[in-house]
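Retry 2 of 3 after timeout on previous attempt. Resubmitting structure tokens to design endpoint.
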């Protein structure tokens, strides 16, 4: 009964963290996180009760879980065009495995408290401190001339912290020729939406397609 309670707690707490990641539209969401927590808890339970009293050595299994989840998290980190993505997801999987180990060891209080801290850091602190630090933004826009594209790029170079990549495509349709640009850049958090909207007023022939 106690083992079932430990596994149930791991599933619940891992699922809570996963639901937050799911809400943020991350690739590693609810199912991934509750499986990591549940698996970690099961490894811990098996190490305590599965091999008899004489061979009981829970610390070995816990150490292997930590290194194993490290490889899993590394698979979620992507380095593309000088931009690193997936670090938060990898760290989330790592701490979820720790929560699962805590549940598997019967340390429910620590597991629940850590889950609360994870949600506090991911949600509440991010909302309270939106303007601290920088974020990477992908901007796609169209313009009717190369001159307009150059003006936008030059303005972005002044506003952003760093311009990672710049891609320009020439499109020809029945309505005429236009240019499609895609830019990756680092900007300060907080005023991203307001500043991008300002570009619509500054450049009459520029249309923002999407931002990420």
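Retry 2 succeeded. Sequence:
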């Amino acid at each position: 009964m106690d083992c079932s309670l430990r596994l149930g707690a791991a599933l619940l707490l891992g699922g809570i963290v996963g639901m937050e990641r799911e809400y943020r539209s991350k690739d590693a969401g609810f199912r991934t996180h509750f499986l990591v927590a549940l698996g970690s808890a099961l490894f811990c339970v098996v190490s305590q009760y599965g091999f008899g009293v004489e061979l009981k050595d829970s610390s070995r299994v816990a150490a292997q879980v930590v290194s194993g989840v490290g490889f899993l998290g590394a698979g979620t980190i992507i380095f593309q065009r000088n931009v690193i993505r997936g670090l938060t997801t990898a760290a989330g999987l790592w701490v979820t495995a720790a929560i699962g180990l805590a549940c598997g060891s019967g340390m429910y209080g620590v597991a629940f408290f850590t889950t609360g801290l994870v949600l506090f850091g991911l949600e509440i602190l991010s909302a309270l401190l939106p303007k601290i630090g920088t974020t990477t933004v992908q901007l796609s826009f169209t313009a009717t001339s190369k001159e307009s594209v150059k003006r936008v790029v030059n303005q972005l170079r002044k506003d952003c912290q760093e311009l990672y990549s710049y891609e320009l495509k020439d499109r020809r349709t029945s309505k005429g020729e236009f240019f499609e640009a895609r830019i990756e850049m680092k900007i300060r958090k907080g005023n991203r939406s307001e500043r991008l909207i300002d570009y619509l007023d500054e450049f009459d022939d520029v249309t923002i397609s999407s931002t990420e």
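Attempt log closed. Residues 79 and 134 are 17 Å apart (CA to CA).
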